[in-house]
Amino acid sequence: MSSSVLTEEAIPASTVQHGAPGTRGSAGTRAVRYALLVAFVLLVLLPLYVLLVTSFKPSADISADTAWSLPHRLSVEGWGHAWQTLSPPLLRSLILAVSVAVISSVLGAMNGFVFARWTFPGAQVVFTLFLFGMFIPYQAVMIPLQAMFLQMQDTAPFVDGIVKLIIAHCIYGIPICSLIFRNYYATAVPREILEAAKVDGAGMLRVLRSVVLPISAPAFVVAMIWQFTSAWNDFLFALFLTTRNNGPVTYALNELAGGQNPDYSSIMAGVLIASLPTLLVYILLGRYFIGGLMSGSVK
Amino acid sequence: MATVKFDEASRIYPGNDKPSVDRLNIDIADGEFLVLVGPSGCGKSTSLRMLAGLEEVNDGKIWIGDRDVTNLSPKDRDVAMVFQNYALYPHMTVADNMGFALKIAGVEKSEIRKRVEEAAKILDLEPYLERKPKALSGGQRQRVAMGRAIVRSPQVFLMDEPLSNLDAKLRVQTRTQIASLQRRLGVTTVYVTHDQIEAMTMGDRVAVLKDGILQQCDTPRHMYDRPNNVFVAGFIGSPAMNLLEVKVVDGGVRLGNGTYPVGRDHLKEASGDSVTMGVRPEDLTLTSAGQGIPVVVDVVEELGADAYIYGTASDAKQHQDVDESGADLPERPFIARVDGRRPPQKGETVYLAPKEGHVHMFDSESGKRLGD
Fold this sequence. Notes:
The structure holds two protein chains of two kinds. Chain A is mostly helical. Chain A folds into two domains: 54 residues; 221 residues, MetI-like (MetI-like fold, Orthogonal Bundle), CATH 1.10.3720.10. The N terminus of chain A is likely disordered. Chain B is α+β, with helices and mostly antiparallel strands. In chain B, strands 6-7-8-3-9-10 form a six-stranded mixed sheet, with helices on both faces. In chain B, a hairpin with a 2-residue loop joins strand 12 and strand 13. The radius of gyration of chain B is 24 Å and the shape is elongated. About 3% of the residues of chain B have low confidence. At the A-B interface, helix 7 and helix 8 of A face strand 6, helix 2 and helix 4 of B.
């Protein structure tokens, strides 16, 4: 889901018009095309359906035989229980994801600006090294990361729980955010605007603050959605850097789902609750209107 | 206000062996309007950007007034620049665009407002001060870009083809406005264009560049009357000067069946036994058959008072420009200005003779002007 948003933002609207099948082909091919599309949509929505119906069933009614049927009796018990268990970690996840989204986008904007428009000798090499960062798997740094935080425990005891995750995700997000902003600045922000600002007397930080950042909204949307989602969805870092008392919602969800006697309705409700925020972010930010932001600047 | 001096200034782009600007020397007087002109890739924009501080100077020096600015950053040079595509800040209003430099310089808000309003008045931008650039027409945006330069009262104005994005009519209108505005403000101005008409009409002096090398820097009149070399001769003037390869004979050069008299001292410097002769279209007259250059008329352009005939000179070999790739450029027609009321017909053969004293002689090999 996140990757589709990224490409849609990155590709100009005019090239994303292949979704207009009604204009081509005969009625027959069109019918086939729609049938296929509907089939795929149903396929994608099936698990969601099971989640939804199960979450409203009382625990006693849940069995594999009736998994597909609608609930006989409506019950919000599962939702209540899930909310009670998940609301503190939900808040922590929210703090985590928002902090990560904001901090790493700002860092990415600064890096991207320098890589694209205020280059220095050797910038290309440094940028390539940055990109390598994207290909380091989480698993590879698990132990060194844990060791580093353990060492920090004495000197900086406040680095714990969510703060650890914020630091880890911000660092991990620097490569991708730098890439997003670099590409945006290299293509969408005309060089002349920055040159005009330089001639007008602005230094690097002034150009960044007064000219570049105010016209970076589209790149911020992309980078923030990306970072919000990856921080929100992360389970691996949460698992080895936090505990049940200070971990994010993914950790808590795992706790909820584990155990001898799983309460399926609360698990399903919990899954839905935990996935709502990312959905909201897509709806709110993803529809951000990009066109026309740069218009009037040049020519 | 200040003088500007390019002192052997050179720019070599990384990865190139040939300099894009090669030891440029120009002295620009205080308050002068200097136009840099030349074909694309000649180094005119690079020269301007070197003066702005946007392009590194690899060799030589640049002076503004008595300050050596060669290694200063743009913000310390006190120059204002108008870009070809205007480069307005899209998120700022017209007033903020114009006042941005002053704001950075720490000028008081009321003073900024005052100066922006003054500039807006000069440029007829008063109703648009609170608009964003996207709500403006092309001409208005161009004026905002001008305004951004004016409010600063800089030492030097730099303009990089500021009219090339306007339509033809507006371009002519704005051309005059910029020239008169510059005279009024008296700010030293360096203006880059590829359009030789803009160069001739706007500049106090015109500097013609080709392949990074300054060909000639002179007043428009003098440059038109006495081009230094074949390139300037062909570049300045519209329609272009006719250039012919002619054989040197006793007492002059061979032209058609006759001899066109040319002073001995003109030809004694010539390196070969032929020279390049240049004649402007308006310096040709129709003569009787058998004399002068026979030309078959291909096209007649009637402009009312005048008419231009475009034709093929049937015997004289025409001088061919050779571009950098070594390929011959398409053959240029022979052009002559004739009386608009009695133009010759298409397909007719006419005989054209240059007016006495209105020909230019160039060395066939070096292209340099011969004699006076």
